[in-house]
């Protein structure tokens, strides 16, 4: 059934006069839909050849001692770049699904405390011996009604970013708490911070505050766009507070209706 999309703008003049303008934005909607489908198709099509390339690279790496020494470095670089491309494709597919709402949100009682603890320990493992300190202050009692996989993606993007954009030895404070408004995950780092002019645009795809850094940090540039869509799917929002040189705080807000008590254990 064809849909017509209208954008309606109502302006008030004085006490009783109103100007109502309705604009047909159906074409714009269709174009946006085509863009998403295109991105999703291209990503899926690229995945198969990349899997083959990565498979051969892995086999070659397993036999690195048979590879002539002058090619070993090239082999390492190729493996690294293939991994980056895989991460990019995975994120593109996830984002396309989140945007179209095709990623059906699988609402369940989710143990957010456990999810956050797991993510922090993964982040700690990835940061290796960089000496990052991750402090956790996690309320146990409340669980969230939401999609565990989507929430895991959102939380890990924010927590891994905190590590990525904080120099070695820095501190990351992770706090999960509830109050009258709802439930909140705050991730506060002592890192490089963000110039306020960039903050409103950080959740756009591929937007980076400092493009020269992204080669080093190796992200996909899609992390915060994914976070934004996951939070939207959970009726939540993202708050970003930061100053250059003074670290950043990313807060995921969830409304009260999403909070549930931990389920009672049944035998
Ligand atoms: P990326 O893969 O580049 O990290 P994201 O979408 O996750 O992409 O983040 C977008 C941009 O936001 C980053 O490139 C970086 O400039 C900025 N950013 C995100 N998290 C932080 C943080 N904790 N501290 C400083 N800058 C950050």
Automatic annotation (TrEMBL):
It catalyses: ATP + protein L-histidine = ADP + protein N-phospho-L-histidine. Its EC number is 2.7.13.3. Residues 41-258 form the Histidine kinase domain. Keywords: ATP-binding, Cell membrane, Kinase, Membrane, Nucleotide-binding, Phosphate transport, Phosphoprotein, Transferase, Transmembrane, Transmembrane helix, Transport, Two-component regulatory system. GO terms for molecular function: kinase activity. It is found in: Cell membrane. It is an enzyme of class 2 (transferase). Member of the two-component regulatory system PhoR/PhoB involved in the phosphate regulon genes expression. PhoR may function as a membrane-associated protein kinase that phosphorylates PhoB in response to environmental signals. This is Phosphate regulon sensor protein PhoR. The gene is phoR. The chain holds residues 171 to 437 of 437 of the full protein.
């Amino acid at each position: 059934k064809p849909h017509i999309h209208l954008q309606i703008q109502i302006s008030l003049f004085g006490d009783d006069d109103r100007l109502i303008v309705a604009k047909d934005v159906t074409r714009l909607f269709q174009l946006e839909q085509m863009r998403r489908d295109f991105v999703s198709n291209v990503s899926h099509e690229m995945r198969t050849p990349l899997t083959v390339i990565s498979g051969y690279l892995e086999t070659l790496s397993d036999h690195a001692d048979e590879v002539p020494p002058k090619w070993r470095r090239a082999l390492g670089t190729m493996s690294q770049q293939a991994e980056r491309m895989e991460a990019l494709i995975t994120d593109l597919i996830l984002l396309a699904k989140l945007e179209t709402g095709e990623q059906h949100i699988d609402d369940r009682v989710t143990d957010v405390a456990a999810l956050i603890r797991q993510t922090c320990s993964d982040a700690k493992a990835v940061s290796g011996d960089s000496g990052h300190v991750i402090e956790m202050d996690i309320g146990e009692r409340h669980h969230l009604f939401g999609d565990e996989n989507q929430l895991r993606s959102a939380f890990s993007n924010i927590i891994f970013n905190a590590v990525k954009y904080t120099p070695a030895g820095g501190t990351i404070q992770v706090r999960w708490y509830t109050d009258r408004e709802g439930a909140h995950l705050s991730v506060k780092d002592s890192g490089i911070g963000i110039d306020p002019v960039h903050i409103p645009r950080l959740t756009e795809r591929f937007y980076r505050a400092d493009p020269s850094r992204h080669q080093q940090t190796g992200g996909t540039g899609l992390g915060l766009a994914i976070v934004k869509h996951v939070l939207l799917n959970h009726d939540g929002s993202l708050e970003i507070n930061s100053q250059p040189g003074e670290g950043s705080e990313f807060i995921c807000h969830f409304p009260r209706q999403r909070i549930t008590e931990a389920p009672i254990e049944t035998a």
